[in-house]
Structures are given as structure tokens and as C-alpha cells.
Amino acid sequence: MRFASLGSGSEGNALLISGGSAPGAARTSVMLDCGFGIRETERRLARLGMLPGELNGIVVTHEHSDHVGGVFKFARRHRVPVWLSYGTWQAVQRDCHDVTINICRDGDAVQIGELELTPYTVPHDAREPVQYVIDDGKARLGVLTDAGQSTPHLVQALGGCDALVLECNHDRDMLANSRYPWSLKQRIGGAYGHLSNDTAADILAALDRSRLQRIVGAHLSQQNNTPELARQALESVLIGGGPDIMIACQAEGFGWTGIEA
């Protein structure tokens, strides 16, 4: 399995996952969320050496525009099927015309070609937000962004992964001292907002990390965090070494990253 990011942050998110385990079978590639316009998505895909026609599906986490803003226009143009929760569909159904829609729900694995994607619910201020664990039969990738707090359910879902994309949205002190209005600070830092660096570190500490090879800090706020602070928080859990740490950015995301089986 390998994965890459088109971009990660409040201005747009999209994650590519490609994998397959069956001998002789074609690789399966999916895009998790798409918060960019059609042309920008195509440009970013080309940067990663992928054509739109190579995508087997788009999987959506929730209806906020930085995650779903480009999904349906892109899917309609390139005839790519879309998977999302029923609550998310209710929020975006006006945009779904002429797109093949599939409904998924917490705990029920979805098979897309050679990839199995298992959605799990997370606490976020959306209709029915889910995140995903992706398995190609040899390796497991866990994704967690857009959650306000840790829960036993998400810790259980992410245990035993080989790689992890983990939200490190903000530094608490930077958010508290920012120019954001009080209401926005409350939303971001609240139980249904976004993960702070220290909460992300707490989640990482609680996970079964016996197979973990790589961690990507993701969805960093450009105003209320820095890559250095996010990295320090994750490193604090990994005393004595351990998985490689990468930090995703808004402009470039990150390039193709492999997971060893």
C-alpha cells in the first residue's frame, strides 16, 4: 500500500490511497475527500503522477467544504463513484445529481477493488462524520482528522495500524492567544472541533503501536500551529525512537509514501 496527500488544511483536503494484494490484480486507488476545485484537483493529481481515470472511488468523511467542496463536480466529470455516510448524504444531497452514490456506516467495511475501508464515527460538528481504516490485505492505514476529542471507539479502530494520518490542528496556547473571535476559538478547541497537538499525542500514546511504521501529522492550522510544535508533540510519545514522523502541509500535502507489509 502507498498513500499521498494533495493538500491538508482548512483550505482543502484530499488523500490518495493505492494498494492491492492479489497476484496479477490491478491496483485500486481511492481519494479520501476532495476539498479542491476540479482543475486544482487535476493539477495536484498530475503532480503525483495520477490521472483522474485511475481513481476507483471517492470516499467522504463529512460535509464541510474543505473536505467535500470538490467531490461531486469532480466525480460527475470523471464518472467516479462516491461513498459517504447517510447523514453526510442528507447534508449534500442537492449536489449529488448524476453521481453514483453509495452509503456506508460505522463498522461496516466497504470493499472497493483491492481495498477494504472501514468507517468509524468520530466527534465532530457535522451530521454523521466518519473517518476510515484502509486495509489491502497486507497493510493497514488509519486516518483521523476533524475530531474534537479522543474516544475509546476511535482508539480501538486505529489500533494495530502500519501507518497513521493523525490530525494535529492547533497548539492550545497559540489558539488561545490568536485573533480569532471567542466563538471560533470555542468551536475549534471544543469537544466537537479539532484535535490539538497534545490531544493527538494522547491518542497516539493510547494506541496499539506494535506495527506502526509511519505517522503523518495532518490538518495543521496555518495560524495556530507550526510543523515544529506538531512534530514535538508526536515525538514526545515516541521516546527512544519508533515510527517515522512526517508533517503534511496545505500547499503540497506530501508525496507518495509506502507501507512495508
What is the end-to-end distance?
8 Å
Gyration radius over CA: 17 Å
Query: Percent of residues in helical segments?
Result: 25-40%
Assign the CATH topology: Metallo-beta-lactamase, Chain A
Strand order of the largest sheet: 6-5-4-3-2-1-14
Mean pLDDT: 96
Major sheet size, sense and barrel closure: 7 strands, mixed
CATH level 1 class label = Alpha Beta
Structural class: alpha/beta
CATH architecture: 4-Layer Sandwich
Query: Can you count the helices?
Result: 9
Number of beta-strand segments: 14
Low-pLDDT windows of residues:
none
Domains, number: 1
In one word, what is the shape? globular
Gist of the model:
With 261 residues, this protein is an alpha/beta fold. 26% of the residues lie in helices and 26% in strands. It is built from nine helices and 14 strands.
List the topology elements:
Elements: E1 2-7, E2 14-19, E3 28-32, H1 38-47, E4 57-59, H2 65-68, H3 71-78, E5 82-85, H4 86-92, E6 101-104, E7 110-112, E8 115-121, E9 130-135, E10 140-144, H5 152-158, E11 163-167, H6 172-176, H7 182-189, H8 197-206, E12 214-218, H9 227-235, E13 244-247, E14 254-258
Parallel strand pairs: 3-4, 4-5, 5-6, 10-11, 11-12, 12-13
Antiparallel strand pairs: 1-2, 1-14, 2-3, 7-8, 8-9, 9-10
Helix pairs in contact: 8-9
